[in-house]
Amino acid sequence: MSWRSSINATLAAVACLGLVAGCGEDPAQNADQEAGAQPSATSEAPMQQPQQAPKVDRPLDIAKAAQDKCSLVPEEALTELGITDAGTENDFGICMWDTGTVSLALHEDQGLDVVYQRWAEGKFDKFEPGEIAGYPSVTTTPQKSPAAACSVFVGTSDTTSFTIAVTNPDGQEDPCDVAEDLSEAVVEKLADR
Fold first, then answer.
1. pLDDT tens profile 123-142
2. Could you tell me the CA-to-CA distances from 139 to 76, 89, 154, 169, 175 in Å, in that order?
3. pLDDT for 109-119, tens place per residue?
4. 52, 80, 147, 182: which has the highest count of C-beta atoms within 10 A?
5. Domain extent at residue 98
6. 34-38, 95-99, 142-146: least confidently modelled range
């Protein structure tokens, strides 16, 4: 693996984790908010009203899939994107293909409520609630991300979820379309287990 590939893989992992874990928060702003201060009018991202994540009617068990999570993204779907390498799990437990062009993270203790909270905190430039194969989802781009990056979070139960993150796979396809298609394939695989 070249140094560029290693850096790309690390950046994709950090971006995927940062969306849920809350990397890049401004400690001064958080301290002000905890003290009851309102965000200033000059904040980069306005505070939005929190909205609750939809409930999951038919939970999927992602714990079973955690041992072999890289097998959740079908090879055929990756091949269509020109990705031929096998997925590898990095130190953060995220499956990555093509040095980070596509990544999959399972969140065994975080439902979509965490993503809605990040949205309420203004962490996304794009936040589109929807549905993937009958499960609640949110398509996002984090603040200040490259235009060719997108993540789709899918609620598999009220307390679990997964994320597919895609950076521009071939320079021509919309990474959000690709992430949504891959997310649907993952839901189908989870439902078959």
1. 888 899 999 999 999 999 87
2. 23, 23, 9, 17, 10
3. 999 999 999 99
4. 182
5. 3-192
6. 34-38
